[in-house]
Amino acid sequence: MVEQFIGTWKITSSENFDDYMKAIGVGFATRQVGNRTKPNLIVSVDDDGIVCLKSQSTFKTTEIKFKLNEPFDETTADDRKTRTVVSLENGTLVQKQSWDGKETNIEREITDGKLIAKCIMGDVIAVRTYIKEA
């Protein structure tokens, strides 16, 4: 169920994120900002089952709204235009982004009360850990 993800999540650690951004083709200047940015992740669901994922930081706020398993067009924080589909697989929220013949997955799951986001591009995996704000 998506319900377990609902709330405001504060990032506490980010491992290998620079390598991940390199792997998806993010330029140096944007990576510098990306590495310094500590976004909150805000997850909500409306009455129609539309999920909203908002990444909020002092630098930039991005938001996507979607229904599970329905493809949509996304403009990412680093300005990639992707065709994205989000599904729920065994309690893991899997966001697949496709662009220019490439594909990356962001897998979010709740483990020990923390939200763990794995950003996967080929054999490069970044792990970002969030804790829920009270």
Automatic annotation (TrEMBL):
<dbReference type="Pfam" id="PF00061">
    <property type="entry name" value="Lipocalin"/>
</dbReference>
<keyword id="KW-0813">Transport</keyword>
<comment type="similarity">
    <text>Belongs to the calycin superfamily. Fatty-acid binding protein (FABP) family.</text>
</comment>
<dbReference type="GO" id="GO:0019841">
    <property type="term" value="F:retinol binding"/>
</dbReference>
<dbReference type="GO" id="GO:0001654">
    <property type="term" value="P:eye development"/>
</dbReference>
<keyword id="KW-0683">Retinol-binding</keyword>
<feature type="domain" description="Cytosolic fatty-acid binding proteins">
    <location>
        <begin position="7"/>
        <end position="24"/>
    </location>
</feature>
<dbReference type="InterPro" id="IPR000566">
    <property type="entry name" value="Lipocln_cytosolic_FA-bd_dom"/>
</dbReference>
<keyword id="KW-0845">Vitamin A</keyword>
<dbReference type="GO" id="GO:0016918">
    <property type="term" value="F:retinal binding"/>
</dbReference>
<protein>
    <recommendedName>
        <fullName>Cellular retinoic acid-binding protein 1</fullName>
    </recommendedName>
</protein>
<comment type="function">
    <text>Cytosolic CRABPs may regulate the access of retinoic acid to the nuclear retinoic acid receptors.</text>
</comment>
<dbReference type="InterPro" id="IPR000463">
    <property type="entry name" value="Fatty_acid-bd"/>
</dbReference>
<dbReference type="InterPro" id="IPR031259">
    <property type="entry name" value="ILBP"/>
</dbReference>
<dbReference type="InterPro" id="IPR012674">
    <property type="entry name" value="Calycin"/>
</dbReference>
